[in-house]
Amino acid sequence: MSSPQAAAASAPDLPLKRMLIGGAWRPALSGQTIVVENPGRREPIGEVPRGDAADVDLAVDAAAAAFQAWSRVAARDRGRLLLAIGEALEARQEELARLIASETGNALRTQARGEARMVADAFRYFGGLAGELKGVTIPLGEGQLSYSRREPIGVVGAIVPWNAPAQLAALKIAPAVCAGNTIVLKAAEDAPLAVLMIAGICQDHLPPGVVNVVTGYGKECGEPLAAHPLVRKVSFTGSTAVGKSIMRAAAERVAPVSLELGGKSPSIVYPDADEDWVLDGIVASMRFTRQSQSCTAGSRLFLHADIFDSFLDRLVARVSALKIGDPLDEATDIGSVINERQFTKICGYVSEGLSRAESRLVTGGMPPQEGPLTRGYFAVPTIFADTSNAWRLAREEIFGPVLVAIPWTDEEEAIRMANDSHYGLAAYIWSRDIGRALRAAHAVEAGWVQVNQGGGQALGQSYGGIKESGIGREMSLEGMLDSFTETKSVNVNLALPPPPGAR
Ligand code: NAD
After folding, report:
1. Residue 2 belongs to some domain of the structure
2. Most buried in the list 8, 23, 87, 110, measured by CB within 10 Å?
3. Pocket-testing residue among 168, 237, 287, ligand 1, by greatest number of atoms within 8 A of Cβ
C-alpha cells in the first residue's frame, strides 16, 4: 500500500506528554496521558497529557496574568511578532504537514500540505492587519469628541476539532492574539500534535502565557474551559450538539461566543452545467479527498433531472479514479477516516442506504473486508441516488464520504429542498447562466455560497454559518474585529466653561 516515500512522520522537537501553559511545557497534574494514533496505520505516534479542570485553571490563570502586558503592546508590534511566527512556520511547513497527515489520516499530498501552508499564511495575514485595529470618530458637534476604541476582550477560550486541527487552531490563535487577547486553546484529543507544534513555534516568539495549549477530552478539559469564569470569550469549532452546550455555559456569565458548527451543504446543478469542470468541482466541493470530513462538504447534490443519470455516470468515473491509501504515500488521493467511532458511524449510514428500497447505490458501499485498506479506517467514496430530501442520509451530517444525489426539475423546488435543513453553512451553485446562478446564490440559506467552484475558504473573507451551523464570523479583518475585540465608546466634552477665576 505504501510507497518508499511514505516514511512515518516522527515528531522531532515535540515535547511529548507535555502541553504549553504559561510558557512552560507541563504534564497533566493528574499525570494521565492520551495516546495519539495514526488512523491510516492504527499505530501510536505520540502521547499527550490528559488535561482536566485543574490544568485548565492553571492555563487560564497564566493567560489572565499575561493579558495586561500583552494588551498594552502596540498593535503593530504584536503584528510583527505574528509575522515572525508565520516565517518560522513556513520554514517547518513540510514537517508540520507530515505531522498533520500522520495524526488525522488526511492525505499528505492532497490535504495536509495545503493545511500547513494555510497555517503560516494565517499568521502572516493577521500579522499584517494589526494596524487596522482602529476605532472611529463620530461627528456629534463641535463641543464633543466622540470616538471608539477596539479593545481586546481578555482571555479567549478556544476549542478546535480534529478534521483540520492545525488550520483551525491558527485561525483562532492569530486573530485573538493580534487583537491583544491572550488565549487558552484546547486541541482535539484525536489530533493534538500539530497544534502543539504550532504552540511551540508561537512560544519561541511571544511572552509566556500569551498562547497556552491544553490537551484532553471534551468533557474533562473542554467543558471546564468553556465554563471558566475568567474566560471572557469562547471561540468554538465543532459539532452543533457541543456548540449548543458551549453557548449555554457561556450564557451563565454572558460571555460572547463564536460558534463554527456542522453542515449539510447543498450543491445545485443546473442543466447547462453538464460539463467536465463541474464534475471536478463536485468532487472538490464534496471534499472527497478529505474523506468528506469537512463542515463545508457539499453532501446533498441537487442535479437537474435532464442530466441526472449521465452526470452521475461520469461522476462515478471521476470518483473511482481517486486512489485511497496510506496518508503519507505521495500517490494517495484519499486517506483514512479519523478513528474507529467515525468509521463505524459512516458504515452505519452506508448500511442504512443499502437497505433502503427507494435509494440506488451509484458507487462505493461498505469498506473492503480484506486487503491493504483493512489496515486503517478507510471508507470508500459512496454515492446514493434518491428522490427524497427527507431521509436520514439527506438530512444528517455524516462527516464521511457519502453523497446523496436528488433530481429536480423546477428551480423553486430545488431551492426549497436546499433550504429544508436545520444547517446553513455552505452552498454551491453550478450554471453558466450567471443571472440565475446569482438568483439561486441569494435565495439559498447559507453563510458562504460559491458559484461554479468548490474550493476551500479564503483568508480575508468572513466565514461562518447561519441557522444551526453557527454564530459569528472569523477569518477576516471584520471577523477579527467582531469576534476578538470589544468596542468602547468614549465621549469627551470639549465645551467646558472657563475655570473659576479665568477671564
Ligand atoms: P466535537 O464537537 O465532538 O468536538 C470538537 C471539540 O470540542 C474537540 O476538541 C472536543 O474535545 C471538544 N468537546 C467535545 N465535547 C465537549 C464539551 N462538552 N465541552 C467542551 N468541549 C467539548 O466535534 P468533532 O467530532 O471533533 O468535529 C467534527 C464537527 O466539527 C463536525 O460537526 C463539523 O461540521 C464541525 N466543524 C465545523 C467547522 C466550521 O467551520 N463550521 C469546521 C470544522 C469542523
Report:
1. no
2. 110
3. 237
Cβ contacts of 57 within 8 Å, gap of 6 or more? 224, 228
pTM: 0.96
Supply the CATH number for residue 189's domain. 3.40.605.10
Atom of ligand 1 nearest to the CA of 162: 26
Please give the Cα distance from 35 to 17 (Å, whole number). 9
pLDDT tens for 98-128 read 999 999 999 999 999 999 999 999 999 999 9
In a domain, 282, yes or no: yes
Q: Which domain holds residue 380?
A: 266-451
**DSSP structure class, residue 222:** I
Whether residues 288 and 252 share a domain: the answer is no
- Polymer length of the chain: 503
Are both 310 and 351 inside the same structural domain? yes
Residue 399 CB–ligand 1 contact under 6 Å: yes
Does the residue 98 lie in any domain?
yes
The predicted structure's pLDDT at residue 14: 53
C-alpha dist (Å) from residue 264 to 300, 350, 389, 396, 419: 7, 16, 12, 7, 10
Q: pLDDT, tens digit, for every residue of 438-479?
A: 999 999 999 999 999 999 999 999 999 999 999 999 999 999
Domain contains 317: yes
